[in-house]
Specification:
Layout: E1 31-33, E2 36-37, H1 38-50, E3 56-61, E4 67-69, E5 72-73, H2 80-86, E6 94-100, E7 103-110, H3 115-121, H4 126-132, E8 138-141, H5 145-153, E9 158-161, H6 168-171, H7 179-186, H8 191-214, H9 221-236, E10 243-245, E11 250-253, E12 274-279, E13 281-283, E14 286-287, E15 290-295, H10 302-319, H11 330-347, H12 357-364, E16 394-397, E17 400-402, E18 417-419, E19 422-425, E20 434-435, H13 444-452
Parallel strand pairs: 3-9, 7-8
Antiparallel strand pairs: 1-2, 3-6, 4-5, 6-7, 10-13, 11-12, 12-15, 13-14, 16-19, 17-18, 19-20
């Protein structure tokens, strides 16, 4: 089936996302987006279907358009599983893959090119491009989804779909969600994916460079948060169109450092405080997730310095465990970090009652040291942290300490919150570990030096 030609000579030549024709300086032949190889996307679809029984259907849904109010929409962000399997960055789309007599085919159901709609809302990829540039075996208007599914289900035994579907006709066909199979694939990153994650980290570096130069008394957190995104995109240069903030950032200072995910970002900074920043940029769908803790005055006080170095040691020693041949899991690394945290706090004269395991876990260090990272900030949530580490996994390492105002703890440490977070590629051996965020200053000396320049 062919799409009717658009009556608009401008939109008929446009697509709904950057391609090698609209962005030849960024996207080359054989790619559907920056760093997204068509051959790799096709192989993912084949791998998924090979994991299912013969005579199976797998159905994946694009993310919906989300609205700020009434018909005012947010910027579009594709579902991570859908993007991983397709490279397609539009709403109102459904991918149907089926295996019949061990022959695998993929069909995209999507918006048609339409003069009136595209004049109001911008161009879409359309049916023809779905086949020509995105490599699907066939494509049809989204309006024909149900009729095609009815035909397919008559000839198949097992069907599977994204478990989040609310589509009534499709829901009756769903026996086996595909989310777990896809996330098992996503947790090990390809070389192309690691390059995209490295680029996201490199772009985020420019934002942190700005923060280290601009953090000072009287500046408000929201100004710094806005500046972080702006200077990251500015540093990205020609890659800026493929870059956006990865998540709502944390810019906490003073007592707000004791709140793990403080995102109001509306307070003025004061000398003597620390500012805990948790922020990262997304590039071509892949995320950086970085935390740094910065002294507003440009210098750490002695208690801040001591506690900061204790946390930095936990980060550095824990990172050394992230390799496949160690046999470790992320839970093993977290347990190691807890024990090292206790050891380091003892050296800082924390009383025994203040560093018991339940106090560490529930008060001082209440979060896990790590999560998987990729197309989502908290990536592949169905993959357990008790899984053995494999080369190519990308994870965060983010120890933190949050000392409340309680006489159980040394008075000069009360009210201090510190988190330091890197993004790390798990190596085959220890020498293969790759810290993607290594260029973002994190030692006391490097932070203070950058702030003095």
């Amino acid at each position: 089936m062919q799409t009717p030609k658009s009556l608009n000579p401008i939109t008929s030549l446009m697509s709904g996302q950057p391609t090698k024709f609209s962005h030849p300086h960024l996207i080359r032949d054989g790619q559907v987006g920056y760093g997204m190889e068509l051959s790799e996307l096709k192989s993912r679809r084949v791998r998924l279907m090979e994991s299912l029984e013969n005579n199976s259907i797998a159905i994946l849904f694009s993310a919906p358009m989300r609205f700020y109010s009434q018909n005012i929409f947010h910027g579009y962000r594709q579902d991570s599983n859908f993007l991983y399997m397709t490279g397609w960055n539009e709403p109102e789309s459904v991918l149907v893959m089926y295996k019949n007599n061990n022959t695998i085919r993929s069909t995209m159901f999507c918006q048609e090119k339409n003069h009136r709609n595209e004049t109001w809302n911008g161009p879409v990829n359309g049916i023809e491009l779905a086949v020509e540039r995105f490599g699907f075996d066939e494509a049809f208007p989204i309006s024909q989804l149900e009729s095609h599914l009815n035909e397919l289900v008559d000839t198949t035994m097992v069907t599977s779909a994204d478990s989040k579907t609310k589509h009534s006709t499709i829901k009756m066909y769903v026996d086996l969600p595909t989310n777990k199979q896809i996330q098992d694939m996503r947790v090990i990153k390809s070389e192309n994916e690691i390059k995209l994650l490295q680029t996201a980290a490199n772009i985020s570096k420019y934002g942190f460079q700005y923060l280290l130069k601009s953090t000072k008394e009287g500046v408000t957190q929201d100004v710094l948060a806005t500046g972080f995104e702006y200077h990251s995109k500015l540093g990205a240069k020609e890659l800026s169109p493929l870059t956006q903030i990865g998540y709502v950032p944390v810019f906490a200072s003073g007592d707000q450092n004791l709140i793990l995910h403080y995102v109001q970002n509306n307070k003025k900074l004061r000398n003597g405080e620390l500012m805990l920043v948790d922020a990262g940029m997304e590039f071509s769908g892949y995320n950086a997730d970085v935390s740094r803790t910065i002294p507003v005055s440009g210098k750490f006080s002695p208690p801040q310095r001591d506690l900061y170095n204790a946390i930095l040691d936990v980060l550095e020693q824990s990172t050394k465990l992230l390799y496949e041949s160690s046999g470790n899991t992320l839970n093993d690394v977290h347990l190691f970090s807890e024990n090292l945290m206790i050891k380091n706090l003892k050296k800082l004269d924390f009383r025994s009652s203040g560093i018991e395991k339940d106090v560490i876990r529930n008060v001082l260090y209440p979060h896990h040291i790590s999560h998987y990272l990729g197309l989502s900030v908290h990536d592949t949530g169905s993959v357990s942290r008790s899984r053995k580490l494999k080369a190519g996994m990308v994870v965060t390492v983010e120890p933190g300490i949050y000392v409340p105002y309680d006489d159980m703890f040394p008075k000069h440490f009360q009210g201090i919150g510190i988190r330091i977070e890197d993004n790390v590629v798990v190596g085959k051996t220890e020498k293969d570990i790759n810290v993607l965020t290594a260029e973002i200053p994190k030692t006391v000396e490097d932070v203070e030096k950058a702030m003095s320049q």
